[in-house]
Automatic annotation (TrEMBL):
Pfam families: Sugar_tr
Record-annotated membrane-spanning stretches: 76-98, 110-130, 142-161, 173-201, 213-237, 243-262
Family statement drawn from the similarity comment of this UniProt entry: Belongs to the major facilitator superfamily. Sugar transporter (TC 2.A.1.1) family.
Name under which the protein is recorded: Major facilitator superfamily (MFS) profile domain-containing protein
Gene3D superfamilies found in the cross-reference section: MFS general substrate transporter like domains (1.20.1250.20)
Native organism taxonomy: Eukaryota, Fungi, Dikarya, Ascomycota, Pezizomycotina
Keyword Magnesium carried by entry: no
Length: 328
């Protein structure tokens, strides 16, 4: 059975168990001093946490919630816009309108439905790929690489559909290429945006507000899906397969957006991620600089505490030996 998380155990006052679980899950890749530092961060976060209320959701959204300097409003909007961007990669067009798109490629109704089912199923493979790469290359690189892949795929897909419209006698020859692009799109999306866009909102909020953070992400998802579901039929009716070129351009736009404004959370404890938002600057490099400054201060403080502890132990041992010698 899986143990309770260290943060849950600490939140209910079971500190010894929290430390034991943390030691068990970190012992193979972290030093004891790093584990002790993370444990102290968890305890400090739990002790500083406050009960949240529905009103807190609205306060955070307008930048009024949380402790001064925590920049919760910026975190909320990062979560919302991330999911809106995910919807505008083109995933709703491919998922909801794949039978129509396959029909344009010249397939029969039966074949359309079969291929549409395959498009949804290949997402499972993409999710498995995501579990293998998201902690290796990081969240930011996953999103930027995913955008570039989707940009290329949609550019090719749009070109294929345009070619089939201008040369209807060769539509059957273009059809396999169109289907291949749809499958590659679903695979690329599931391996990058489809998972990371839901992961980041659960990581960048403090422990006591993590549920609200995920709520902001779901809000962005609902807005994005609702918006694209309404716009897609109008867009495809107006400009047809050239819609793919528009979506490709948006994917290209998401690359600098992610690079400039979204933090990297890979290999960082949930408590230390707060340090990324200790600066009022929205830019990635300033968040990294603030994180490093805070971590250097934490490590220095931890080293000082350990030195004081060792010095105290040495002093106690010396007093003990002196007492023994006096008695002798």
């Amino acid at each position: 059975m899986l143990p309770d998380s260290p943060r849950f155990l600490a939140s209910v006052g079971r500190y010894d168990e929290a430390q034991q679980v943390l030691n068990k899950i970190r012992c193979h890749k972290c030093s004891q001093s790093e584990i002790d530092l993370e444990y102290k961060e968890i305890i400090a976060t739990v002790q500083e946490g406050k009960p949240s209320s529905p009103l807190q959701f609205a306060k955070i959204l307008i930048g009024k919630g949380g402790n001064p300097g925590s920049n919760l409003g910026r975190r909320a909007w990062l979560c919302i816009w991330l999911q809106i961007m995910a919807s505008w990669t083109g995933i709703t067009a491919v998922t909801a309108y794949s039978p129509v798109l396959l029909g344009q490629a010249g397939y029969s109704e039966l074949t359309q439905n079969g291929l549409a089912g395959g498009l949804n199923t290949i997402g499972i493979l993409g999710t498995i790929i995501s579990t293998q790469i998201v902690d290796r290359i990081g969240r930011r690189k996953c999103l930027m690489l995913g955008s570039l892949v989707l940009f290329v795929v949609e550019l090719v897909a749009g070109s294929v559909y345009e070619a089939s419209l201008h040369q209807p006698d060769k539509a059957s020859q273009f059809a396999p290429a169109a289907v291949a692009m749809l499958f590659l799109f679903n695979l690329g999306y599931a391996a990058t945006w489809g998972t990371v866009a839901f992961l980041i909102p659960t990581e960048i909020f403090p422990s006591d507000l993590r549920a609200q953070g995920n709520g902001f992400g779901i809000t962005g998802w609902a807005i994005g899906v609702g918006m694209t579901t309404l716009v897609n039929p109008i867009m495809f009716a107006s400009i047809g397969s050239r819609s793919y070129f528009l979506l490709a351009g948006l994917n290209l736009l998401w690359v600098p957006t992610i690079f400039l404004f979204y933090p990297e959370t890979r290999n960082r404890s949930l408590e230390s991620i707060d340090y990324l938002f200790s600066t009022s600057s929205p830019f990635y490099w300033d968040m990294e600089r603030a994180f490093q400054l805070c971590m250097d201060g934490k490590v220095e403080k931890h080293v000082d505490e350990q030195a004081i502890k060792v010095a105290g132990q040495d002093e106690a041992q010396q007093e003990f030996h002196e007492t023994i010698q006096q008695r002798v």
